[in-house]
Amino acid sequence: MASPAPAAPAAALPPRRRRLIVFVKWCRLSVLLFLLVVVVLGLFLNHVGLPEWLTRRVEAQFREKGWDLKYSRLRLRWYRGIVAEDLQLQRVGSRETPQLFLPSAEFRLNLKAFRHFDLEANSVGLRGGRLIWPLPGTNQPRRTLVLNQLGGELIFQPNDLWELRFLEADVLGMHMRFRGEITNASFIREWK
Fold this sequence. Notes:
Elements: H1 15-47, H2 52-64, E1 67-70, E2 73-77, E3 81-91, E4 99-109, H3 111-115, E5 121-135, E6 143-157, E7 161-171, E8 174-183
Antiparallel strand pairs: 1-3, 2-3, 3-4, 4-5, 5-6, 6-7, 7-8
């Protein structure tokens, strides 16, 4: 009975084949290392939150659009976008404007812009919020409109169009649901 032939040692392989094997091993190791870094970074951004320089950038973008943003933590969730916890949103520089309080808001990111490291939201999802809107009046006591259990989804379309997929809230003992589109949405900043 013949014994099997021993495997050829690596030194016996032709030089081109050895280089190919080494190249494939390094590529495999590089891909695995890249995936490990992405997973660890994703877990860090999810559990700890966004770094300070990135949160300042988000705040600056809101301030440019005329909104004052306060929150307890911003986190990145791959499947939900940027999640702001204990969010408070109001117009910059005025106390007599609507104030929005949310336990959490999800800003779904535009992936094309995110590839270029731009933080641009496609939509925002709201749940369990509260809107306090002081209503102006003359020769009358000031009234305030309060919307409780506020929830909805707002989609930012091109050409300054916002699509309000739905907005629901409890108002004055009634449950209301709204839907619509807002054209020339950038003019909301200039409302008095």
